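Dock aspartic acid; give full complex structure.
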Amino acid sequence: MGLSVLKFGGTSVANPDLILAVAQRIADVRSRGNRVVVVVSAMGHTTDELVRLGDAVSSSPPRREVDMLLSSGEQVSIALLAMALNQLGVPAISHTGAQAGIRTTDSHTRARIQSIDTARILRELDAGQAVIVAGFQGVTEDGQITTLGRGGSDTTAVAVAAALAADSCEIFTDVDGVYTADPRLVPEARKLDRISYDEMLELAVLGAGVMHSRAVQFGQRYRVPIHVRHSRKSDPGTLITEENPEMENASVVGCALKENLGRVSLRDLPNKPGVDAAVFVALAQADINVDDIIQNEASNHGMNMSFTVEHRDLADIKPAMERVLAELGRGELSIDVGLSRVSAVGLGMRSHTGVAAKMFSALADAGINIFNITTSEIKISCIINRSEGEKAIKAVHAAFGLSGDQQPAVDTLTPMNAARRSTANAAN
Ligand code: ADP
Ligand code: ASP
Ligand code: MG
């Protein structure tokens, strides 16, 4: 008998009728002889509303209490889904993250899953139940409720699928798969039948909200194939899986836009060993991800450093950096807000030339100023003004020929890269 993990996002369970429709879909999967574990998000925009409630009573709500509040959203949807399934004659039982054995770090509002004790889930499956698990939440060793960061239900689903060695992990959402760009921003975007873990991970980190980035990491590490599908259609959606070494990779498979970024600048820092370490140890201790790091050439007079963070981390960054400056005895802190990052991603960048030139030309032709550039083997990102984000992603998407009516851009291989690629294939 197969074991499927199915995850339904907020829009798929936004009201009682949709919850009943989801219950029917689960009943159909079970009637084909599968055991099912279902991970659910909070209904509709519940989590946003809970965030607003917290902000209405406090300008800096303690993160432990934010988790207590936000985790309540999923507790409502799991209970309603279990009720709806029982109504359809399917035995079902709901579990909070803690009840499902999901143990996390104690980093409130951005906790990471450390382990999953599957004993209880397996016991309920053996008893013939459809097992419902609250997405987005877990519990620390000493019993504190945590959440995994916005969009974290995807990570719950893939981690549970990995822990159970499930046959499949299906992410049901409100689009019929992963597109070459967010179809809300770029209506011409094209659905991809398949995408590699590496490309999906980059796109997710860079702003493609269709998948939580840590979910893709779990999938890759434990080799869980992930299907992203529409919750009300039978379309097979997009398969996120290993790279297919036989296939010619397009130079760019997708674009993403990340909004609400701020730039933190530290000026006139002392120029001596250990200053970078002091800054980055403080960031690590606060569990804050930073990107686009620039350090100016240091002189006797001091050095300057800047990096970007998400707006939501600014409240934690400010006190952390002020402490570092006080310890160093020198330096100034300033923060700019209102930036975005537009990115292009593709495994084919490893073997194609001219990708950066094409991206910068597209932005230049659209009259968009680039403040900072970062690259990796498979991505190029540019920091721009937030107000130009939509124009930028449309321009980059069009430049790489990603629209539905265009062929994806596959630039010509240079002879040297072609040789390197065939050696790599032979080694596989
Ligand atoms: P859920 O509530 O099901 O988790 P999300 O809102 O988190 O749904 O994710 C689905 C949304 O992700 C889509 O409605 C779409 O606007 C957005 N999205 C962003 N980038 C992409 C992309 N590359 N492909 C598909 N959808 C994307
Ligand atoms: N309900 C949470 C959120 O809105 C988790 C999720 O939907 O994945 O972020
Ligand atoms: Mg989501």
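Observed: The two ends are 33 Å apart (CA to CA).
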